[in-house]
Design a protein that fits this description.
The chain has 265 residues and is an alpha/beta fold. It has seven helices and eleven strands. The N terminus is likely disordered.
Length: 265
Amino acid sequence: MSDCEGYSAIARVYDRLNAEIDYAAWADFVEACFDRFLPKRPELVLDLACGTGSMTLQLAARGYDMIGVDGSADMLSEAYSRALGQPRILFLQQDMRAFELYGTVGAVTCCLDSLNYLLALDDLARCFSCVHNYLDPDGLFLFDMNTPYKFREVYGNNAYVLEDELIWDEGEETEERAAVYCGWQNTFHPDTGLCEFDLSLFEELPDGNYRRSDEHQTERCYSMEEIRTALSGARMELLGVWSDYAFSVPDRTTERWYFAARAKK
């Protein structure tokens, strides 16, 4: 998911490089939260920082009318292409800190650490306030964020490589595959909480040559207290924090927090 501008190169292969994410299981968790915290399931849902639309499409297929908002035109282009023929989705290119809708929604989702791309505490507070503004009274806000443990121990100053292959054309006798390699170097600054990602993407072309693209991205590490304070300031009631889709209690090695909050009006 995305709301930063550093997705121009990676947008076209984003889903391939994140193929391990089980969006069906994540959507099951979203619906479990609906059933746990709402009197009835919402009809209209906003997927904030929707990226290429993986969660948007999952929820639309389950019968929800969806709005997908993202700041990246490239990511939205991928989402729109995937959603052709799906009448339940409206995509809008807007800043997650200051988006505008035509009315309120019953629930808002924001997935895959998109909120960590907001680099100032004031930006996080603005986003939460905007979510509150467009939620129905007692509407549900479901989001996740990378934990301080993940920034320190998993990201840190480590380097990683992802690779994937895609079938270009599969005929009766031939099968051609195109490779994608993504390498990135992390640089975590504990004093500011910022983590910089320098990515190099290599995509194999049909003629066997490779196309290289480079991107720079930054996330911010937020403490639990900062998140709680920002929610409270936006008049959002924190309902729970978990470490997985099974509603497990987080511990010191949890890498991702899953939040549920309610709009108090």
